[in-house]
Amino acid sequence: MKFKHTVNVLIDNFGVTFKLLVYHLIILAVTIGLSAAIIVPLFNGLENVAAYTELMEDISNMLSEIIKGEVNGLAGHFEAISTSFNNLLAYLAEHPSDLILSAVGMVIVILIRSFLVTIGNYTAGCLISDKMAMQANSPFAATMIKNLGKASLYSVIYVPISFIYNAVCVGALYIVVFIALSFLPIMICIFLFIVFMILLTGLKMMLVADWMPALISGKKKMGDAMAYSITRESGGSVAVYSFFASSSVLILALNSLGFVGTFGAAIIITIPLSYIYLLCYQFVNYCDNNNIKYFTDKRTIVKPEHEKETSRQQFLRGE
Predict the structure, then answer these.
(1) Residues 6+ apart with CB under 8 A from 275
(2) Which of 58-62, 152-156, 259-263, 314-318 has the highest mean pLDDT?
(3) Sequence-ordered alpha helix ranges (H) in the chain
(4) What's the pLDDT score for residue 148?
(5) Using the 8-state DSSP alphabet, how is residue 70 labeled?
């Protein structure tokens, strides 16, 4: 039933997708501008470096064969790319100043982007909560300004935790895959990397699933909401984990298909829609677990067995 209610709430909040899309496009433009200012000078300085030239040629050759449908030589290409990459790292180790500055700059850009994206997601969560609670069509910009303090605090805490978790997972799996390449076919290694990354992503999503709804719908304080989510006080961890793990597969497939099938045009819609889909589940799950009634559309109200009566004034006061 939660999946059905999630889909209904998603349809009821479909307009939020386009509001979030505009916001993401603005962030994308800012991110591209900042990234170009950091990356272009670094690449210009590497154009005359043999290791960099070899790496670009190896990547180009591999992509050319993939486009032609020739995948038998992928293992050899990955070995060549690995060798060229190691040679480039050796060169950069001898000339660390530019690399360190560029790496630090890119990390800062990534964190800024994640911070802004998370604020947008928090705002979208507020819109979804308002629609589920009172069928209110709250404006995106005004809601963001109204909740900017709470959204910023949430983002400041969430983004570094998420960044470190993702970096550790990717780094560990990267090492495992390159070790596995010595005795496993390349396609199996790629498959295992994707599978384990999906499982680890599902774990992270499960641990933070109730954090935002507890802040917005539950009116909890930041520390209480975070503890409520991470300790899985609401229960149903297996079901929540299963949803997020399976949803990660669905979202990856949908966005990959949209990117390949439409030359990237479809992901303009599918990426913000993926965020809204996950947010809808988080709020549906929180309301169900805390006996809070909610609208799935303007004619349908989901009422728990033991309903917690809340007036409009009590809701606005956070009681």
Answers:
(1) 20, 121, 124
(2) 152-156
(3) 2-12, 14-46, 50-68, 74-94, 96-134, 140-146, 148-180, 186-208, 211-216, 222-230, 237-261, 267-289, 312-317
(4) 96
(5) -
